[in-house]
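Technical note accompanying the year-one report. For the benefit of new consortium partners, we illustrate the data format agreed upon in the data management plan: each record pairs a sequence with a structure-token string. No post-processing was applied to the example shown here.
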Amino acid sequence: VSYDHEFYPGKLKLIADPPAVLYFKGTFPRLNDRLAIGVVGTRKMTEYGKTIAYKIAYELGGADVVVVSGMALGIDAVAACAAIAAKGKTIAVLGCGIDVEYPLENMQLKQRILSSKGAVITQFFPTEEPKASNFPIRNKLLSALSHCTAVIEAPLGSGALLTASYANAQGKK
């Protein structure tokens, strides 16, 4: 989906240096017509965090809100699973190319997202391997796609808090 395509999310056009192209698999939701909320958090969640993440994402998915996460282990994966269980839509934003299987532990989740008419998206070239410098870029994209971001259990210096920082800088809650 190129910058000038009708499906290109309008929210992305409002940030500094929006990606020229988004690569995706699945059913790309028309985000210009839908409420989207980011749900992110730690990979090392507590049972309480897992329960809260599931409840929030399930309720959002059931209310026809698109749940946006990073498909990381932990809270991100729980949020995507909950949205799917509620028969809602979810988008996973990757920090690597669309054709790269990462994280390997979530490849079954990736297939569930695709089969539930959700989408997996990235701004990285399809075969680009994950690297540390990609994830802050992914987090900025995730927050830009969302109207607001819910952070559930995040240690200092984490990617989830960086996502919240991006959301704040973009004028979002």
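Partners are asked to follow this layout when depositing records. The beta strands are 23-26, 36-41, 66-69, 90-93, 119-122, 148-152.
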